């Protein structure tokens, strides 16, 4: 269904590529605010859309995201000194402010204006929801700030983390879009994980043949997966895909809501962001502790890094006994690494021209199509889905409804944000 | 003698290459039977001729060798669940039988025939001599099963293992064909190894200027190396090369017989198989223990892998003192790693157009020529050497004969399999 | 200022490249004499200008530098046996003398002249100053031996070591030419290192805006950096760059003199040589101990290797606290690793077409120009700077002089070698 040429177009996001140009029109989750914990703390390397960048928080608390390399002789400013309102290259002392403007070239004579002519690439940043967001596109096209619910609730209601995944963003994101694999890959969790165990939803998800229906939304896609529930009823799980790379998972019961962002570092690596929030209450200490320990949709990280303890170099610590017993369906522990292990096993960039898709892949097919169409529309008047913050104010949810409730009504309910308790089961 | 173009043709064995097409006409040692110890045990990754494959033993004990990647979305089935009579992809539950036929796509409706249309590449397998053999060529050309003596004796009479060597198969195989390097590289063993020490053969092999004579056999080549023995006598070591990659080492006295298979994983790595058998008695516990410990032609393996403890990353644990003293001629311990260290030191693919060959390389020259000729004959009526199992039923051997015994008589004796005690000294 | 094409020309030094042809006209520091401590000791791998070579010291103490690979089947002679007056390939016993001449092919019949026709590439070597030098160019153009002062003083007056740096030689050498970065990158040392601390020079070097003046010398460049000193005086640091890759650092007071050679291994790695000598006295035990411990311009090495303990895989053990406090300007410990960390951070080969140069880069600009010009002059009658040993007999030095001393007089003083005490402050 996807040609080799289309696949190339979908996966490449460096400067000047069609998809890279599209993604540069959106605000991008760049790093965690806590990575720049305090003013004048150490700088952090960030790689986005194949660009090597450096982030730091200046004396006034402003976040800078600039070219990693000094304009002068191209050494990495990661070794730079964070000084009053800027970073100084340790090689010859050239200093830059948070906008990448060179403010001092010490070797120049007193009255020199040389430094004024030197400016690094820099991208505007905004902090919301514990995340530093950046915009890498044309300044005149900068959109309004993102308004995802998880980013707008009080800090106490939210937990966010990221991990580095060693494959192209798209095969990771397709996992987030794909509502059908839960019944298999994560089925061990349906029986054992406190977030699922004992819920009606977990029970209904044992139906391995969901019917998928997909509707275009202003933000991207609304994806409904219908499974058999009790007599005369259907169990709907309705998932949101917001352009360009956000996916939202329907919760179970009153549990917190989960979402992901799948952000390209380069064409063979991505940041897998995970966000958890509850719209109406603070997260509980035991919920936070579980997430910090790498449970649920989170993964255990190698301390001091955003790389995972289980990874392809150790076969994800696969446990064949647990796989045999069925407590871990694939033998890999944790939802995050279950997904990551399979997605990385496809190789850094899967060749989609070799795929053999089925009916339950309809959402993935539609998402690819929408990405290609949006990239094709660049430079026209066509609006870009997901650019308007109004499109962010949606939720995923699950419902049990009589079989005869029309689909459109289900989707309409799901896409309308409510301030009341969410209704998943 | 070999042009760059001929070298390329000799070393490349991926799908569609001349040598790859030739090798796909033969049964190929794929993995050890013991790697698939029991029905429904974990699957094993196998790489052959640049193809990524997966092996498993199904509920009925049948061995499957199929494409490593699920037809659906191309994740590795190494993470798959071994279930009743098949393997199930953990992503969406597609199930395949031992022939790679998809038997179940759970997301499809009850009456769907979709799964019938999905089939993975798979290769037929047969088990013989503790080895799973596969055939990767056109089904209509599948030859009879291999009948090497080591594969046909009772299990008690045999020991087989493999190790991964990090270079092209050909430079490894050429070491197995080369009867002259023993007097140098392995000369320490001639004095110290229990298999050689004190034998007449070891003594005679100190003649470093063997005369080589090569005769084409139906299977490949018979290679005679003649050295000086006692007054008026010659010491012959007669080695077999059976197409496409089998070599057999003449034994010393009543010791067990050794052989190798040099099987391409891809163009820069190969499986170095070692086989030991005695035609008329069970191997002794001390013989087995020595081989399991990586002595003789075997190597010490990193537990849980087929990679060697001594390897290029640790300079093969070279012992310069032992090299100086001559107890280890090259300073590397063990016949296997002595060969592997030098062969890997050539780089992954040696450029044979730079070689400077001598008279003792005649067997190597002839083997290359025979490989190229056989590849050139594909599609014609010319028979492929080594395809007929009758050509497998040969032995290597050593003899002391009067100087005036004609060579042809020696070779005739050597190529005739006898059921009596073997006659090496 | 440098185009991509010029950059390519500057950085590539393999056989047949313009810069490679230029460099092959000079004597090249190949390895430390102590790496070949005694006759018939183990051979050592050496990589120079993208050629894989092997060094050994033969029975008579002569140094051989030959092709790493046996002419016969191309195995690495690093596994070779050092025997009487030569090295023997462990595969088939071919023996080579220190000139790469094959002297024995044991498999050949007694009267054979075959070995006479086999010769490995080999390069003449000379030992001076604890260093084995080689000449890789056309024999008829071999220049006189190098006569750098450090190489000519008694052994007791000198310390030499090397380390492997993982980037192109040029960006390393440019650091050695660059007199202005000391005021920044190494400024911590100006306050704390025993070699600098408390000297007038260290005090004056806090002027971060040196004026640079560059004069062509017969050897390469003389580079004068003038800083403010006490009332009405200037502090001059005069650095030598001798073609093709030698740099000399002005000392502080009566301290020993330091120099470097930046020698390409291949286009992405180089040997960073450091040489220290005192022209008129033996080095003191505490000086030697400090250097052996990797202090000053030396680096701590991984035992048994010339690779550094601090390296890019451990972020050079950066100490952000020390960086913050200013005791380590970039947070990296030691002058050598301060330079190496930044130079490696540019990537293996920096793209100079992206640079933004300033007035203090004039020496670097001139050096590049001189290298390109010299490569362009190959094959003409134009003399090559630095080829005549007379051009080696120069020193770097520092002076405090009245502001009105004309520059030419300063340089004239600096370039004249004196046998009296050196005069740096």
UniProtKB/TrEMBL annotation, chains A, B, C:
Origin superkingdom: Bacteria
InterPro entries: ARHD_Rieske_2Fe_2S, Cholesterol_7-desaturase, LigXa_C, Rieske_2Fe-2S, Rieske_2Fe-2S_sf
A Pfam match: Rieske
Domain Rieske: 27-134
Sorted UniProt keywords: 2Fe-2S, Iron, Iron-sulfur, Metal-binding, Oxidoreductase
PANTHER family: BLR4922 PROTEIN, IRON-SULFUR DOMAIN CONTAINING PROTEIN
Official protein name in the record: Rieske 2Fe-2S domain-containing protein
Organism: Pigmentiphaga daeguensis
């Amino acid at each position: 269904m996807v040609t080799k040429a289309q696949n190339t177009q979908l996966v490449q996001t460096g400067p000047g590529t069609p998809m890279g140009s599209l993604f540069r029109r959106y605000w991008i989750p760049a790093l965690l605010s806590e990575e720049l914990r305090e003013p004048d703390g150490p700088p952090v390397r960030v790689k986005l859309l194949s660009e090597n960048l450096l982030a730091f928080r200046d004396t006034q608390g402003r976040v800078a995201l600039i070219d990693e390399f000094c304009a002068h002789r191209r050494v990495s400013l990661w070794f730079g000194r964070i000084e009053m309102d800027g970073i100084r290259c340790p090689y010859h002392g050239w200093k830059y402010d948070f906008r990448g403007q060179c403010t001092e070239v010490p070797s120049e004579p007193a009255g020199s204006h040389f430094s004024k002519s030197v400016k690094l690439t820099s991208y505007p940043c905004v902090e919301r929801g514990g995340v530093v967001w950046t915009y890498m596109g044309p300044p005149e096209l900068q959109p309004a700030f993102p308004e995802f619910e998880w980013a707008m609730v009080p800090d106490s209601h939210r937990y966010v983390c990221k991990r580095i995944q060693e494959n192209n963003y798209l095969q990771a994101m397709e996992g987030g879009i794909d509502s059908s694999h839960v019944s298999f890959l994560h089925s061990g969790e349906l029986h054992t994980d406190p977030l699922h165990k004992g819920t009606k939803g977990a029970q209904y998800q044992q139906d391995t043949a969901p019917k998928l229906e997909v509707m275009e939304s202003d933000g991207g896609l609304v994806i409904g997966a219908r499974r058999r529930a009790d007599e005369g009823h259907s169990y709907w799980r309705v998932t949101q895909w917001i352009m360009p790379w956000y996916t939202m998972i329907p919760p179970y019961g009153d549990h917190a809501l989960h979402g992901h962002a799948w952000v390209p570092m380069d064409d063979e690596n991505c940041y897998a962001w995970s966000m958890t929030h509850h719209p109406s209450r603070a997260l509980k200490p035991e919920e936070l502790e579980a997430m910090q320990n790498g449970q649920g949709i989170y993964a255990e990280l190698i301390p001091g890094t955003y790389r995972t303890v289980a990874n392809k170099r150790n076969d994800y610590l696969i446990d064949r006994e647990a796989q045999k017993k069925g407590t871990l369906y694939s033998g890999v522990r944790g939802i995050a690494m279950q997904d990551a292990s399979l997605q990385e096993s496809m190789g850094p960039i899967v060749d989609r021209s070799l795929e053999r898709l089925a009916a339950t892949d309809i959402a993935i097919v539609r998402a690819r199509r929408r990405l290609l169409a949006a990239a094709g529309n660049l430079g026209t008047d066509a609006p870009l889905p997901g650019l308007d913050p109004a499109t962010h104010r949606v939720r995923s949810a699950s419902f049990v409804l009589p079989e005869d409730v029309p689909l459109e009504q289900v989707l309409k309910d799901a896409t309308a944000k409510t301030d009341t308790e969410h209704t998943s089961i």
